[in-house]
Amino acid sequence: MNKRIDKKKQKRTLESAVTATATSSAPATATPVVEIKEVVKEVKVPVEVPAKNPAFYVQYQSAEYTVAAITERVIADCNAKGHAVETPEALSIYLKPEDKKAYYTLGGFNGYIEL
């Protein structure tokens, strides 16, 4: 016989064996459907009130600076230059004690004060 005919014959016998085993197997048992109901409970988390900021001092070469004093001076300088500080969180202050200056940014505006 021809190799081609042999391959076709083997393929047909394989296909018939697969379909015979698939049809002869027992039908699958139906699995019960389980409904899951979502239970949501409200959890109350206690809210902690943030403590006031502690006193913070910077000492450098016989000079002492407090954060509160520098912040007040920076806000006063911003207001004097026409840039109102609505929230102190929007203000960023960078202290350089070696230059004796405090640089600040507020929105797109920046400047500095002498210490």
Describe the structure.
By secondary structure, this protein is of the alpha+beta class. The protein has a domain at 57-114. The protein is built from two helices and five strands, in the order αββαβββ. It has helices spanning 3-24, 67-80; strands spanning 57-60, 63-66, 91-96, 101-106, 109-114. The radius of gyration is 40 Å and the shape is elongated. The N and C termini lie far apart (105 Å).
Helical coverage, percent range: 25-40%
Low-confidence stretches: none
Strand and helix order:
HEEHEEE
Average pLDDT: 77
Task: Give a brief rundown of this model.
The chain is of the alpha+beta class and 115 residues long. The chain has helices at residues 3-24, 67-80; strands at residues 57-60, 63-66, 91-96, 101-106, 109-114.
What are the main properties of this structure?
115 residues; alpha+beta; DUF6465
Which helices and strands occur, and which strands form pairs?
Blueprint: H1 3-24, E1 57-60, E2 63-66, H2 67-80, E3 91-96, E4 101-106, E5 109-114
Antiparallel strand pairs: 1-2, 3-4, 4-5
